[in-house]
Amino acid sequence: MRLLSTDALQGSIDVPADKSITHRSVMFGAIAKGQTKIKNFLRAQDCLNTLQALKELGVPIYDDGNTITVTGVGFSGLTSARQAINVGNSGTTMRLLLGILAGATFETKLIGDASLNKRPMQRVISPLKQMGATIMGENQQEFPPLIVKGNSHLTPIKYTMPVASAQVKSAILFAALQAEGQTKIIEKELSRNHTEEMIAQFGGKIHIDGKIISLYGPQILEGQDITIPGDISSAAFFLVAGAIVPNSEVILRNVGMNPTRIGIIDVMKQMGAHLQITDKDQVNQSATCIIKSSSLKATIIKGALIPRLIDELPIIALLATQAQGTTIIKDAQELKVKETNRIDVTAWQLQKMGANIKATEDGLVIHGKTPLHGAKVSSHGDHRIGMMLQIAALISEDSVELEKPEAIAISYPNFFQDVKQLVKRRR
Ligand SMILES: O=C(O)C1=C[C@@H](OP(=O)(O)O)[C@@H](O)[C@H](O)C1
Ligand SMILES: C=C(OP(=O)(O)O)C(=O)O
């Protein structure tokens, strides 16, 4: 596919719904008692896989095209699926479902696509096994396909997390809601807290003290009405586009502003971006972002900041190619076990376009500012790499061809329409 390029972006877009919160809204709706009504559900492949998975586990879900109504069955009301559940490309779906199914006495086989088959699952298998669940990969491996057989008498654990991962934390919390007694999780670094927030929103009790989370189980949650805010991880592509394309002013409405997710805003401000945040909505944790073409300087991104912008690192790497000086990203080894090895793929694809970027063991080193030129690039089936490359193409001197653009529908089905809407002058 030939990508668009331009020398001006102008206009506004409504940011699509948050993927992490969408997954969780259906999961919490399913394991609660009573009805959950979800507005602004993200109709992207990953989230549709979560919806389908819960239907296959016996949860009544009705979609009127606007609102999704989930009739909660409680953990004990889930029923055995007729066949293996295919969660496609979605790591969140597989890992969180393992936590939910840790207390179900029937057996479930979870399968996914070729990319998911390479993603590490030991990080969830290990704590869930300690709690009493049985989870097996084929040939004793940690990789999907996985078979999970739960245990109706799960035991609570005290668990110090070896990785900063919201998915691992969430899987343990779903199991903890079913276990008798106190579970304590000690986070390595603070990661996105949507699961903790939703436990409270659905009427549960959870105690958080910095990196220590404690929860007494078992708990029965109650269905809620939820409106999903926009996804900062999707907005990120246009935040960067607005900053690096000359003559630009882009307004992004309904951007989720959960503090555990807004690392990219801190980084862009630090780099000198003309970024303004207005119309803050405290209830919905969202705001409007206005970004203008910016003259940028390099920065260092590491440590506790990494989990707050983990999915934004490929697009931040592109931003750094347009900043004066050397940007260093470190402590980001988790990027190697996403949909692709995002350290290597980001460096490799941007190098093809003339960027001065090098992969390191745990991150990237980017020397700016370099002009980008045309090339044949590939998403490698990774939605975030595909979107990053379209934004790179906007400032490319000549034409860029993208292989596997269809991957973008995993999190942002209307991405190319939104790009088109903002492009004022095609080159
Ligand atoms: O919990 C979530 O919704 C997510 C957590 C992160 O993964 P890890 O928990 O593996 O860091 C993130 O990369 C992913 O896109 C979504
Ligand atoms: C890593 C991602 O998602 P998941 O882990 O759910 O596949 C992502 O969306 O960038």
TrEMBL record:
Its main location: cytoplasm. Pathway: Metabolic intermediate biosynthesis; chorismate biosynthesis; chorismate from D-erythrose 4-phosphate and phosphoenolpyruvate: step 6/7. It catalyses: 3-phosphoshikimate + phosphoenolpyruvate = 5-O-(1-carboxyvinyl)-3-phosphoshikimate + phosphate. SUPFAM superfamilies: EPT/RTPC-like (SSF55205). 3-phosphoshikimate binds at residues 19-20, 24, 165, 167, 311, 338. Phosphoenolpyruvate binds at residues 19, 91, 119, 167, 342, 384. It comes from the Bacteria. CDD domains: EPSP_synthase. Its EC number is 2.5.1.19. It is an enzyme of class 2 (transferase). It is found in: Cytoplasm. Residues 7-417 form the Enolpyruvate transferase domain. Keywords: Amino-acid biosynthesis, Aromatic amino acid biosynthesis, Cytoplasm, Transferase. InterPro entries: Enolpyruvate_Tfrase_dom (IPR001986), Enolpyruvate_Tfrase_sf (IPR036968), EPSP_synthase (IPR006264), EPSP_synthase_CS (IPR023193), RNA3'P_cycl/enolpyr_Trfase_a/b (IPR013792). The active site is at residue 311. Catalyzes the transfer of the enolpyruvyl moiety of phosphoenolpyruvate (PEP) to the 5-hydroxyl of shikimate-3-phosphate (S3P) to produce enolpyruvyl shikimate-3-phosphate and inorganic phosphate. Monomer. Belongs to the EPSP synthase family. This is 3-phosphoshikimate 1-carboxyvinyltransferase. It comes from Tetragenococcus solitarius.
